[in-house]
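hey so i finally got around to running the thing on that chain from the lab meeting. sorry it took forever, my laptop kept dying and i had to restart like 3 times. anyway pasting the input first so we r on the same page abt which one it is
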Amino acid sequence: MKTMFGIALLLAAILLNKMALANDTELVGLDENSMPELAQAEDSNENWHFIAGTGPVYMPHYEGASTYWLRPVPLFRATKGNFFAGTLGGIGYHFIKDKTLKFGMRIGAAPGRNESVDARLTGMGDLKPAGELGLFVKAKFDNTYFIGNVMAGSRGRRAELGGGYDFALKDFSDYLRVGVNANWASADYMQAYFGVSPQQSITSGLSAYDAAVGIRSYALLSSWTHIFDRHWLGNLAVVNKQLAGSALNSPLVQTKSAYSVSYVVLYLF
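ok and heres what got predicted. didnt touch it at all, straight out
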């Protein structure tokens, strides 16, 4: 059992190495529950179905950075019955799955960070994407949606709670989503991304800093999905994030507010 679990985590780390980028930019317009009924209907039987695509994302070099970069995000999702795997949602299984409520468990990835992307990180060392195991719940009632995620791994624990509204436009070929979410993290998770250890203080020249447990950030988000036909759709997502808690005083943080913009084209088959 331990061997199988270890293999699953290793597989997740390899597969979700790319997912960590999408996860870090919080491309919430692309989560399973926001997909139009066109995408979800094909997900309801026992055959394999796939979603694949890519597109550019404009995002901070790291959480708290004042500098940005433009890069492509690879997106893929395979489903069969209650099972799913890919960069959209990780690897997981639905215990409950219908149009109103989805509940299950998944293997995901905590995002990585390279010290070479910004001068402020020099001497901090690299953070590699790390496997996580957790639970998720998604509920949708008419135009209102709610999401909740709890993840735990070697880097610590984190949780997300959010909600908002979906609007169908132009004879159901366009969907607009607006929402908010809050992100919580344990002390060890906060320390990994916002703390500066005594050794890191020596190598980086930054003041040592101990990050504490608490709310990590709040986000205001919006996304627009356009269905071109039964196989093609495009998604534009804009996220504005405000750091909170002990992250605000971290010497790594250059700005307390940041945004990300992405546009991706997806193909369903």
